Amino acid sequence: MRFVVLLLVGLLSAAPVAAQNRVVLVASKDSPIETLSSFEVRKIYLGITVFKDGRAVRALRNLTDQKLNDVFLQSVVGLSEERYERRLLTNVFKFGTARPEEYSNAALLARALQANPYAVTYLWVMDDNVPEGLKVLRVLWQEF
Amino acid sequence: MRKSRAYRRRCIRASVVCGLTMAVAILASLPIACFAQEPSGSSTPAPPSPDAHAGAQGTSSHAGHDGLGGVPGAHSQELLFFVSGKYTRLQGLETSVLEHTDFLPTVDIFYSRSAERFRMLAEYLVTDEEHDLERFQVGWQVSGSTRFWLGRFHQSATFWNTEHHHGQFLQTSINRPAIEEWEDLGGVLPSHTSGFLLEHQQELGEKAGLQLSFSGGLTGVLVPQQIEPYDLLNPENGHGQSMSLRAAFFPDFLGDDQIGITYAVHGLDIEPGVQLPATWNADVDKVDVTSIGLYAIWGWNQWRLSATADQVQSLPTGGLGGRRTTFVASYAQTEYRLDDKWTVFARVETTSGEEDYLELFPRYVRSQGLVGARWLIAPSHALSIELADGDLHGDRFHRIALQWSAVVP
Q: Which residue from B55, B58, B254 is facing A42, i.e. has the nearest CB?
């Protein structure tokens, strides 16, 4: 388990340096989630509950790379950072749900993914080289 | 002497709220990492790296998320402080008619906790004039699209109050439209209900959606010059009944744009000592208030428009009762984002129709026009200015308001 986490940390933090051609949605390899629609992805990242197998899917924000965050917000959520933060606040205020957890530390992000099979996040991958211990649920953005 | 004591008490309260506001403001300036709690077993996180490519630096944030030492994602909580300080200067009216004070510091404390299907939220407002548990709701997420709540909440038949609640930072303008005013600040419709709330969201096709909100329960009573909200902690103060509904259509289910209808029925008991309108019989002890409204929120590029029209009907009952009367209140607010920091806005409000019911509320502004600007000085801090020209029972007034508002963390 410790080895897998260490490997994940390395891959999560190294991925953006190598090449940045795809942004994918990932979960732990043990996750029972097979896929999420783009609509469901937008929902969970806007603080709206989505259930899979009766369990709430938890969105984790990957803030280890600014460009990754920008691409994700613009292409997937469709909002600027400022509008996104305001929308999250409004939804928290209305629905009593929590905002997606933010991680700017790859080690903590890797642990969170491993600890909860219903947690998902997004990251860069190159040439389908998915970090060990993770599985891709959906391609969110692709560089042409 | 009595005035002097009351003044001193107000000064003390104002000092306490100012102190609290300043403490929260100081906390706001601390790095977010101070609030973050890491999952158990991990070492002390380093501060966020300015260079993300440097790798495993930084930490997790959004304070309180799973920061209970358990499994990440098992449960979540939020603790937010909406703080603001508002300075108001009135011309043409006695200040005490519309505002009790020139400077109003406010702290709105919001806490929520969610675990799978369980939801709980509370909102506690502290100003130098009041401190109230505004919302306390316990809910169950029946499905991904349906929630059921019990507790005290903002009644469903309003867009403004269910969108911004008491968070001054969330609304662009400083003052809310008169028809949306809180009941204990002179608003003519009850804002709070203690009972049940059912919320449902339905996707329509690939993108559109429908949102329904239905609530019912106990509400406030009419006392001199205002509606006194039902106090869960002091239930012997009396209560009325309320039922409200809002249905909204969203062209983009996850977007802001929406058009909707609202409907509410309130039965308000009238406390002794209330100066009844001349057209009502002296033995009237209750009034039934029905409102039906239309609203739209729409954005085009940098523009955003919110508009509402409510028809309010009142029927005094008890004894010989009185005649049924109707008035219509409407407003339209437009906002234009100059850039990421600056937004300018303008609003017109008007009320027309029979005055009988409105005579019970001397602070209700019949018509008003205002312009203003909001400057987002930091992601969670804003400065706003607002200039208004209004009409209160035929008396014209001018008002300038300045506000700093923020949300922490």
A: B254
Is this prediction's ipTM beyond 0.85?
no
Chain B interface test: which of A11, A45, A46, A93 (most B C-beta within 10 Å): A93
pLDDT digits (tens, 9 = 90+) for B86-135: 999 888 876 566 665 688 899 999 999 988 889 999 999 998 877 888 89
Distance between CA A73 and CA A42 in Å, rounded? 10
Dist. CA A43–CA A18, nearest whole Å: 30
| Count of CB atoms situated within 10 Å of the CB of B44 | 7
CA distance A106 to chain B (A): 5
pLDDT in tens, B46-69: 333 333 333 334 455 564 444 333
Residue with tokens 């973050």: B36
Which residues of chain B are under the pLDDT cut of 50? 1-3, 7, 11-12, 16, 18, 24-58, 63-74
Cis preceding-peptide flag for B105 (omega within 30 of 0): no
Burial B176-211 (b: 16+ CB within 10 A, else e): bbbbbbbbbebbbbbbbbbbbbbbbbebeeeeebbb
DSSP state of B339: S
Residues 142-171 of B with CB under 8 A from A: 143-144, 147, 162-165, 167, 170
Task: Tell me the pTM.
Answer: 0.80
B57 close contact with A: CB closer than 8 A = yes
CA–CA min distance A30, chain B (Å): 15
Complete DSSP assignment for B216-242: EEEE-EEETTEEEPP-TT-GGG--EEE
Question: Residue A102 and residue B62: Cβ atoms within 8 Å?
Answer: yes
Whether residue A93 and residue B114 make contact (CB cut-off 8 A), yes or no, is: no
Alpha helices in B30-106 (DSSP H): 95-98
Contact A128, A24 (CB under 8 A): no
Answer yes or no: do B407 and A92 touch at CB < 8 A.
Answer: no
Phi-psi label, residue A133: left if phi above 0, alpha if psi -120 to 50, beta otherwise: left
Tokens at A88, concatenated: 């999250």
